[in-house]
Amino acid sequence: MTHAEAPALVADIGGTNTRVALAQGSELLTDTIHRFRNAEYPDLETVLRHYIEGRGNTQLSGACVAVAGPVRDGIGRLTNLNWQIDTETLARAAGTGRVAILNDLQAQGHALDYLDEPSLRPVLSGAPEGPNATRLVIGIGTGFNAAAVIPGPNGPIVTAAEAGHVALPVENEDDLALATFVKGADDFAAVEDVLSGRGLSRLFSWVTTRAGTPEQADAAAVMGMLAQGDAVAAEEAARIFTRHLGIASGNLALTFLPFGGIYLCGGVARAVAPYLQQLGFPAAFHGKGRFTGFLEGFAISVIEDDYAALTGCAAHLVHK
Question: How far apart are CA 300 and CA 138, in angstroms?
Fold first, then answer.
């Protein structure tokens, strides 16, 4: 097998699960995708070795992993899991020196040019510009983050960020009460404390506590109640979530000016996508005072492809 024929290893490491697959060039080989529960493994190297050994120690042409956390100087650290990976360890595990470590939102950004139309759910039509415009991906899942996608001469340049850890916006007394409720031991309320899976759970707890009937439910349970249409607290929690998602997305739109479009991704984004219109997302996104009309120019879609980050890893290796 020649270097050109050998597949590359790609992986998407979230706070709960890791998905690993092979890719041929920029094409993800979907029949090779395998999901691992992180709690069952001590570190990422063990996961990758288990995958490679399970495929008969396949020769690899390269390896690229996306991690849900900051990446600096070739070291990726997961925000919601005590794991880290560096390029040396990745090269040793994959048996190749052609390696890369990306933030998971960077991987989503590298995937944009490879997503087909059925993979995108329109939210707001806006007025997107041509191929030279900046785009933005916003991830809502175990955590929250964003990344700007800027056209470059050798493929897109995708910037890294930790947007989920900025302060939660406070516009009124209810927002202040919510911030006080969700802030942790560090006495800080971050965007991610509301806009994430655990954030939706906290919102449900906050709504029921304020009503005098405190309850606990994880994000999946809240969305299940919302789908049934008979849980007032779940709908109120989802409405507050949607309002804050609109506010945060609007803030990011003004920060990065993504006239090429905004793309929401992640498990929570996909779950809430069918309800965004009825729960008030457009008004929350556009509501920027004298810039309300300006915000109407941004198109927004939800990425329905759960494996987009894997495709992005493959695409990044092609341009590396």
Answer: 10
